Amino acid sequence: MSEPATALTGCLAPIDKGGLDALIENGKKNPKAVKTLKCKTVAEGRFRHANYIRDLDPYIVDEPPGLLGDDTAPNPSEASLAALGSCIAVGLHANAVHRGITINSLEVELEGDLNITAVWGTGDVSEKPVGFTDVRINVHMDADAPQETIDELIAHVCQWSPVFNTFSRPVNMVAASL
């Protein structure tokens, strides 16, 4: 009996199980492979920016009125929380399919604490942490697995999430003018 082309995961749209298996195998064959991701950010005026990624429509980032923006899109910090939540959700979905767990529903709620008094380095620049100091992640997952298995799955996904790891460890950064 051959495996189905897709893995059903309750009410979530199915993912290609064969494609997932191929990604897993390729990762095992090439454990040191690195892919460079790119984004070009173009200022549109005030604090609104268009971010160009691959051949996709621009991803807009703005600031809320309290931070002098036009409130047309998430601000950069909110966008980073969205990236974290999406990365965790992708990891949970892929790992559930890999383990044969059916997900009926999945929501990841995030909130982060951020001191904004420095106003991008123009305000109170006294010594304090810049960026998120605390991020809380709450996963609501209904699946055909015991809660202990779901909790282990969440811990496993956070250990291997690229965005979670970017948040939780130092990253080499280089800024230059061209």
TrEMBL record:
InterPro entries: KH_dom-like_a/b, OsmC/Ohr_fam, OsmC/Ohr_hydroprdx_reductase, OsmC/Ohrsf. It holds the Pfam family OsmC. PANTHER family: HYDROPEROXIDE REDUCTASE. This is Putative OsmC-like protein. It comes from Roseibium marinum.
